[in-house]
Design a protein that fits this description.
Length: 477
């Protein structure tokens, strides 16, 4: 029997796809690839995506437009997932130490410094979604098609997954640009965007697949050091953001009030969670170099979950035919924590609150209220809100508690930190920043009208504020 194969004569069994469907035999017989090339490209993608994650996160607090604040939270989380994916793959290819914290090229460093320093929302949108993300997607396409389909199949998978998820991110960005960026914005940004393109050309594109062309341009918007803005900003729809005239927790845990009315307070509590990403972003920024990547990745997941919870509140109100824009969505929790505590103290408060949600009187209770209310959407949202908070408590136990001798000491520190926060309830009133209006009766009346029922007199009369208590109902001293 001859062992000689005629060209093109090799066939798999009964014509089954060869090589687990990864490629044809002829494609796999090509030999123009190496571990070195694969690692080089992945490290460049890693650098850009990690810097992009930081930029998205840092802009959450200062971005006033609610929809963009939520999108930045989502996109930061997706970038974190891709960074983790790349780090895992690089670690498999003879790369300890990984060298992932090294700047791969000065052009990429200047590029990401400029994007980070974008002086306007329009500039951020244009630089990220029209320039940077298309370049990332192109680099992933090249990696997917040029990496050896069999020997480097894990890298091909990584490139495909990144391209799949970030394509949706780019699409969102294009829609946001169409809604928000004017022709004047484009003219104003033209010279700056050209400089960003020169940065990429000087680096041989993001993945070094082209010859380096020209010099790295001088810094423009990054000529001044980037300064994180910890003061939360909200758009014009957020009326009376200093208002702390309604204490929803006191209403929620009062057994005398009906479950149906309590769902309104839970929707309010959910949409008010906009302030958690605003605060968590400050922790991630301040601890940028003080914690390992795994900390940032898990905290980014938690931040995104809190943004989802806020959007659950938005959907809840809309589903009830109620306009949340007429309700004061308070931002003083994130404002006070960001301006009065350091990052470790803020993390302590966050963990203390999370642990307080774990007993039966916490998230389980809210879920039970949602089920009892007859509002199936409330039950569904609280079901997943509870699941998310269990995860967040676990994240805190991994990254916060080990800094202390015991769980009890960690909790006590968080409680002390929260006690340190001055609510400024009276000060905000005296300065005329708010009248702490009781917005509850009007909201409840509108809900009862939509439900076709007569308002309950006791519910209508609810009038407890945050003047002398925290959200966990502990009295302020």
């Amino acid at each position: 029997m001859s062992h000689h194969l005629q060209p093109g004569s090799y066939q798999s069994y009964k014509g089954l796809p060869a090589l687990a469907g990864l490629s044809t035999i002829d494609e796999a017989a090509a030999s123009q690839w190496s571990v070195e090339e694969s690692v080089k490209r992945l490290k460049r993608l890693h650098y850009v995506l990690k810097r992009l994650h930081e930029t998205f996160t840092e802009r959450i607090t200062s971005e006033p437009i609610y929809e963009l604040k939520m999108a930045l939270s989502h996109h930061a989380y997706l970038c974190a997932e891709q960074v983790t994916l790349i780090r895992s793959r690089v670690s498999e290819m003879r790369e300890p130490p990984l060298g992932l914290d090294k700047v791969p090229h000065p052009g990429l460093e200047r590029l990401m410094d400029e994007v980070r320093a974008s002086r306007t929302t329009a500039n951020l949108l244009l630089s990220v979604y029209e320039l940077l993300l298309p370049a990332i997607l192109s680099a992933c396409d090249r990696l997917r098609t040029q990496a050896h389909p069999l020997a480097d199949a894990p890298t091909v998978r990584v490139a495909r997954l990144i391209h799949f998820e970030l394509s949706d991110v780019q699409q969102y960005g294009q829609q946001a640009i169409a809604c928000l960026v004017t022709q004047e914005d484009r003219v104003s940004a033209e010279q700056w965007l050209c400089a960003l393109e020169k940065c990429m050309k000087a680096a041989g594109q993001l993945d070094a697949t082209e010859p380096a062309e020209g010099e790295v341009p001088a810094p423009l918007e990054s000529s001044q050091p980037y300064v994180y803005q910890g003061q939360p900003q909200r758009d014009e729809r957020f009326q009376d953001p200093f208002n702390a005239g309604v204490n929803p927790e006191a209403f929620l845990y009062d057994e005398s009030f009906p479950a149906r009315a309590k769902t309104l307070m839970m929707y309010y509590k959910r949409i008010r969670e906009i302030d958690v990403p605003e605060m968590m972003a400050s922790i991630l920024h301040d601890l940028r170099d003080a914690e390992p990547w795994e900390f940032h990745a898990e905290m980014s997941r938690q931040l995104w979950d809190e943004a989802r919870h806020a959007m659950m509140g938005e959907v809840g109100f809309v589903s009830q035919g109620l306009d949340w824009r007429n309700i004061p969505i308070n931002f003083t929790w994130s404002r006070n924590l960001n301006t009065q505590l350091d990052a470790r103290e803020r993390h302590g408060v966050l963990f203390f609150i999370e642990q307080g949600l774990m007993p039966r009187s916490g998230k389980r209770y809210e879920w039970e209220v949602g089920l009892a209310s007859g509002d199936a959407l409330s039950g569904l949202f609280q079901d997943f809100d509870w699941a998310d908070e269990v995860l967040h408590a676990q994240i805190g136990r991994r990254w916060y508690v080990p800094r202390y001798k015991s769980l009890q000491e960690a909790l006590a520190y968080g409680d002390r930190c929260w006690t340190k926060v001055v609510s400024h309830w009276r000060d905000y009133l005296d300065r005329g920043l708010t009248q702490h209006q009781n917005w509850w009766p009007e909201l409840y009346r509108h809900a009862c009208q939509n439900w076709g029922v007569t308002p309950d007199a006791a519910v209508l009369a609810y009038n407890k504020t945050y003047e002398d208590s925290r959200a966990d109902l502990q009295k302020l001293t």
